[in-house]
Specification:
The protein contains 11 helices and 11 strands. The chain is of the alpha+beta class. It has 2 domains: 137 residues, 60s Ribosomal Protein L30, Chain: A (2-Layer Sandwich), CATH 3.30.1330; 163 residues, Phosphoribosyl-aminoimidazole Synthetase, Chain A, domain 2, CATH 3.90.650.10. The strands form 2 sheets. A 7-stranded mixed β-sheet has the order 6-8-5-9-7-10-11, with helices on both faces. Strands 1-4-2-3 form a 4-stranded mixed β-sheet. α2 packs parallel to α3. The longest helix has 18 residues. The radius of gyration is 21 Å and the shape is globular. The protein starts with 8 loop residues before the first helix and ends in an 11-residue tail after the last strand.
């Protein structure tokens, strides 16, 4: 008589694809029900979790390695904005019937590459069956010196408003994915098209600027739901308003070309999200030191406006008039 298998299919998948990513001794090789994590002396733990779902945050036919990387990076982006250094992560992976071993292998490879890049080892998690779409939920744990996490609250009138990198690329990449014909309308080269598509597919968290934010920013958050709406969230938490020159918002060459061909895209660029850049308020007295530190870290930053008194929604001004938006940010509900 054939003996029943000594381990379940789930145990086998975990052992094959995820145990190699659990390199910390506190993960116990994923053989226990929980893990142990001891923060470095003098540090607070910073906790963050975000989920991504097929058909909502990524396309079902996206490569598995990029899905894994996006799932981790959207969380690393939040750590960066808090001034935190990654310490480890937890993974919950929901898969429908029909997900292949080759998909899992590619997912594991992509996650493993970014775990190594960001020094963020796996401490555990769960694998489950879902009725249809793939769901990936990652919780990241980071560290900051005690009491030094950069919050949304803390911006004061007179602070300068900075963003890293460029805004709106991912929104255009998503539009290109949904409707390839807009490439012709925007007159994009192959390189410009590929740049925008990649910015949507895999974000680039600004972890290199985390320490700089911890030293010089009065408030910060990552831009995930659109610059306009996320600045409003920061202002609301800080009890302030803001004035932003729309022309000062940094755009890539590809985004500028698209905007030149279709000026109405300004609303998509400013409100549609998936940028995963950092938005920060910096007091005037720390301005030069902040700019020097950001340059040393190799992260481009742009001054786009100023924190103002009051509680009105931030004003984005273009050619002397305040822009009006049908929707200020992405929202699931």
């Amino acid at each position: 008589m054939t003996e029943p298998p000594t381990e379940s299919s789930e145990d086998r998948l975990i052992a094959k694809y995820f145990m190699p990513l659990a390199t910390s001794s506190g993960a116990f090789g994923l053989l226990d029900d929980a893990a142990v994590l001891t923060p470095p002396p003098g540090c607070d733990l910073v906790l963050k979790t975000d989920a991504i779902i097929g058909g909502v945050h990524f396309f079902p036919d996206d490569p598995a390695d990029t899905v894994a990387q996006k799932a981790l990076r959207v969380n690393i982006s939040d750590l960066a904005a808090k001034g935190a250094t990654p310490l480890g992560c937890l993974l919950s992976l929901g898969m429908p019937v029909g997900v292949s071993e080759s998909w899992l292998a590619a997912f594991s490879d992509g996650l493993g590459a970014d775990i190594a890049r960001f020094n963020c080892p796996l401490f555990g998690g769960d694998t489950v069956r879902t009725p249809d779409a793939i769901m990936v939920s990652i919780t990241v744990i980071g560290t900051v010196p005690v009491g030094k996490m950069v919050r949304r609250a803390g911006a004061t009138p007179g602070d300068h408003i900075f963003v890293t990198g460029s805004i709106g690329d991912a929104a255009l990449g998503l539009n290109l994915r949904k409707d390839p014909s807009v490439r012709t309308r925007w007159n994009l080269s192959n390189a410009e098209h590929d740049f925008l598509a990649q910015r949507y597919l895999i974000p680039e968290p600004r972890i290199a600027i985390a320490k700089t934010l911890g030293e010089f920013a009065s408030a910060a958050m990552d831009v995930s739901d659109g610059l306009v709406g996320d600045l409003q969230k920061l202002c609301r938490a800080s009890g302030v308003s803001a004035e932003v020159e729309a022309a000062s918002v940094p755009l890539s060459a590809a985004a500028r070309k698209a905007l030149g061909a279709e000026p109405a895209l300004i609303e998509i660029l400013l409100t549609n999200g998936d940028d995963y850049e950092v938005l920060a308020a910096v007091p005037p007295g720390r301005l030069m030191a902040f700019l020097a530190a950001a340059s040393k870290a190799g992260v481009p930053v742009t001054d786009i406006g100023v924190i103002a008194e009051g509680v009105d929604a931030p004003h984005f001004v273009q050619d002397g008039r305040v822009l009006k938006f049908a929707r200020r940010s992405f929202s699931h509900f």
